[in-house]
Amino acid sequence: MAFILRRPIAVSSIFKELPKSSTSTIRQFHHTPAKPSSFFNSKTLNSKSSTSLLKNSSLQNAFKRNYQTGPSYTYGQQAQSGNLTQRLLYGGAIVGGTILATNIIFNRETREDGGMPPFEREYLNQTFLHTGLGLGIISVAAKALHSSGWSYRLMAMNPWAVAGVGLVVSIGSMYGTFSTSPDNYVQKYAFWSTFNLAQAAILSPLLFLQPALLARAGLYTVGMMGSIAFVGATAKQEKYLYLGGPLLAGVACVAIAGFAPLVLPATAARTLMWSERIWLYGGLAVFGGFTLYDVQKILAHARMAEQGLVRKDIVNESVSLELDFLNIFIRMVQILGMSQRRK
């Protein structure tokens, strides 16, 4: 049930915060007639001191062109490079500060066994590898579907039909992955690939947004999940496994808030506003907690697999982290889109 509620829902709400395209701005800039420089006004050109020096019209034009475009172009380049450096510094500071603050607040009690054993480390690294591979499949497939025009057709469909078919395909392929034995790796990876392709088909309309916004959202998501995963991996064994019940209740509230725009009328503006805030910020907190819980659950399964109590199943473990990443990423995209729209 937890996996059903953790699916990325209400993706279409992000497009309410779609920033305006910069095409019109570029077009206006190119078609706006250039303003004459105040340096070359009629009084200056008609004065006796300047007529003898600037009689030749070609000399006037050359001097005017060099005077106007040279310094402004250099200043524009410096401003752009300064903004890029500033953003990179801000992003690095946010990621580093998040890791440090999360480690200080939540990781006061570290492991007592002298560090992570080799089997647990290998198990966790293989899980992260499969998570990255799954997210890579989703991104490549989403790009291919978007280029083929799938996103336009998807946005024109009935939202209830999209939600219903997406849930059926995603949940069916996910439970097919869980129920398949690790020994039957062909069938297991086939179900796992189907699950990733289903997520790509649902999330492909995100590519309507600016690539820079998606890249920043991905960077912030990696920073947030990386810091939380570091805390979960170095914390005391099974310290955060008690969070399963509260997180399930929280994700149920977030899922209900995500379906609210499909049910409530447009006149209930205040209710829709609060439901969107619950879905956005409450979901960010809930799925951050799920990341912490899933990392500790993976390490607990590694210890059980080492003792022969359960089968080693890396693919099943990676699905949980993929869902955490997708849900956090979608909310990061919407938050960044809202901040761009306010500017």
Radius of gyration, rounded?
27 Å
Helix count from the secondary structure assignment: 13
- Helix-strand pattern: HHHHHHHHHHHHH
Beta-strand content estimate: under 5%
Number of strands: 0
Helix/strand structural class: mainly alpha
Question: Which ranges are low-confidence, i.e. pLDDT below 50, for 5 or more consecutive residues?
Answer: 15-81
Largest sheet: none
| Shape verdict | globular
Q: How helical, in percent, are the residues?
A: over 70%
- Report, as a whole number of angstroms, the end-to-end distance: 40 Å
Give the integer mean of the pLDDT values: 75
Question: What does it look like?
Answer:
By secondary structure, the protein is mainly alpha-helical. It is 76% helix and 0% strand. The protein is globular and about 55 Å long.
Chart the SSEs and their pairings.
Blueprint: H1 2-5, H2 23-31, H3 42-46, H4 48-51, H5 57-106, H6 118-147, H7 150-155, H8 159-179, H9 185-203, H10 211-234, H11 244-263, H12 269-306, H13 314-342
Helix pairs in contact: 5-10, 6-9, 6-12, 6-13, 8-9, 10-12, 10-13, 11-12, 12-13
Features:
13 helices; mainly alpha; globular; 343 residues
What's the short version?
The protein is an all-alpha fold. It is 76% helix and 0% strand. The longest helix has 50 residues, at 57-106.
